[in-house]
From TrEMBL:
InterPro entries: 4Fe4S_Fe-S-bd, DPD_II, FAD/NAD-bd_sf, FAD/NAD-binding_dom, Helical_ferredxn. Pfam families: Fer4_20, Pyr_redox_2. Coiled coil: none annotated. PROSITE patterns: 4FE4S_FER_2 (PS51379). It comes from Stigmatella aurantiaca (strain DW4/3-1). This is Glutamate synthase [NADPH]. Residues 30-63 form the 4Fe-4S ferredoxin-type domain. The lineage of its organism: Bacteria, Pseudomonadati, Myxococcota, Myxococcia, Myxococcales. GO terms for molecular function: iron-sulfur cluster binding; oxidoreductase activity. It comes from the Bacteria.
Length: 448
């Protein structure tokens, strides 16, 4: 961490996210040992295959069992540099723990995420210097965006001795790790702390408040061609764009929020108040909809999710829906928003149409009172700037096109990974894609 960075990236006190309890707090040593001792150290362990970054789960768990925490952390972080945040945010239920042999037997799987958190968090708090960067190579890499994809790529490239410059348009670095993840899993300061650890690995600089654009027209902007000319390679970790809108009457104005925008405010803005918000409607059926619904419910709001299809067709994880329901979230299926009703400008209700097999049932619907509407029906793409790098193409859904094995784009000096390539997956996928890109950048810089 450089002098001044911590202050620059400090989050102000009084944020709503501070009210959330950690759903899976750090294990005590006794808890970790007991859980580690349940692992069967399976040969051909399915939990390794299920991890997009290929963490050697049985090996790190065995190291915890023998008291070698530093070794456990090294095993994890050498496969996944963001092993700390992934331990807290990974949907382990559908990845490693979901494939644990215990799950197949109908028994409680090994709590792999919690053991991973225990090993990494405990180790890095006392031994942050786990890895040593190679001698400086003099090569400069530009990374556009500072989310998990770019952070993981920068950390790996810095360990190879390259200088990395991350350009981030927002005031805070970290992408959705800092601004989007549900605060009962990971809070903003924890994400920033992990970022600072990655920065400590080598020559990495984060330039916040700088947007990479096609043609720069003032301070706060740099052009794509300028980046290409002044760096040996470029990595695009652009993520996704703004929340999509419903396009119905009454949507404009106070009280109707894009879900990721509202989540970001809960995590960063002490000025956000939910005073007077007793009821909320969340529109959508994906994980972002589940997250904002669950977060509002935990803040004491009465929340219903409005989804246009049936529960079985929802994009969100079943375990997240179950958890949200336990905290009071209701699901209203086969309904479509028609109009948001206001009184003196204030949101008071929403008119919904009933659907059958995705089609409105003529004349059938209801009006539900609400004080707030959160719209979680997807995000636009933020990838248009990618086209400004000659040769980089987008697919028909606006995702950056790459070679799936190398993550190189159509421009031989430009790589890409994370949500802007996969259309929106998990943090661990962003890390896995960054690893592939870095391997190929290394080959390119070595002249292979
Ligand atoms: C609400 C929400 C909850 C989520 N919860 C989880 C979870 O619990 N577990 C999990 O594993 N995953 C979760 N995800 C998904 C996860 O956050 C993403 O998969 C991951 O952050 C992708 O990383 P990324 O680096 O590709 O993109 P991002 O994290 O989006 O980072 C991209 C960064 O690039 C910046 N940027 C974009 N364009 C430019 C430009 N032109 N110039 C400069 N900067 C630019 C953006 O400002 C942003 O900071 C969640 C996503 C959302 C929306
Ligand atoms: S599948 Fe489960 S029991 Fe087997 S090694 Fe992985 S975590 Fe341990």
């Amino acid at each position: 961490m450089r002098e001044g960075d911590a202050k620059r990236w400090e989050l102000p006190p009084g944020r709503a996210e501070e009210a959330f309890e950690d759903k899976k707090p750090l294990y005590t040593p006794a808890e970790a040992l007991a859980e580690a001792n349940r692992c069967l150290y399976c040969s051909g362990a399915p939990c390794i295959q299920a991890c997009p970054t290929g963490i050697d789960v049985p090996t790190f768990i065995r190291k915890i069992g023998t008291g070698n925490l530093k070794g456990a952390a090294r095993t994890i972080l050498s496969a996944n540099l963001l092993g700390q945040s992934c331990a807290q945010v990974c949907p382990v239920e559908v990845l490693c723990a979901g494939s644990c042999v215990y799950t197949g037997w109908g028994r409680e799987p090994i709590a792999i995420g919690r053991l991973q958190r225990y090993a990494v968090e405990t180790t890095l708090s006392s031994h942050p210097a786990l890895f040593q960067a190679k001698q400086p190579t003099g090569k400069r890499i530009a990374l556009v965006g500072s989310g998990p994809a770019s952070i993981a790529a920068a950390g790996l490239l810095a360990l190879e001795g390259h200088t990395c410059l991350l350009y981030e348009r927002k005031a805070l670095p970290g992408g959705l790790n800092t601004l989007g993840i549900a605060p009962y899993k990971l809070k903003g300061p924890e994400a920033l702390q992990e970022l600072e650890w990655v920065l400590s690995l080598g020559r990495i600089e984060v330039r916040t408040g700088i947007e990479v654009v096609e043609t720069a027209s003032g301070p706060g902007q740099v052009s794509a061609t300028g980046l290409l000319a002044t760096h040996d390679a470029v990595f695009l970790g652009l993520g996704l764009g703004a929340d999509a809108r419903l396009g119905i009457p009454g949507e404009q104005g106070e009280g109707v929020h894009g879900a990721t925008h509202l989540i970001e405010r809960l995590k960063t803005d002490p000025g956000l108040t939910l005073e007077g918000v007793r009821r909320a409607l969340v529109i959508g059926g994906g994980n972002t909809a589940l997250d904002i619904a669950h977060e509002l419910a935990l803040l004491g709001v009465e929340v219903a999710m409005v989804y246009r299809r049936s529960e079985q067709e929802m994009g969100g994880y079943v375990h997240e829906l179950d958890a949200a329901r336990l905290d009071g979230v209701r699901l209203l299926e086969n309904r479509q928003p028609v109009e948001i009703l206001r009184e003196d400008g204030r949101v008071v209700a929403m008119r919904l149409a009933f659907l059958a097999e995705g089609k409105p049932l003529p004349g059938a619907g209801e009006t539900l009172p609400t004080d707030l509407v959160a719209v979680a029906i997807g995000q636009d793409r933020a990838t248009h700037v990618a086209r400004a790098f000659a040769g980089v193409a987008l697919d028909e859904r606006g995702r950056v096109k790459v070679d799936p094995l190398t993550h190189r784009t159509g421009n031989p000096k430009v790589w890409s990974g994370g949500d802007c390539v996969n259309g929106g997956k998990e943090v661990v996928n962003a890390v896995a894609e960054a690893k592939l890109a870095v391997r190929d950048i290394q080959r390119y810089l070595a002249g292979e």
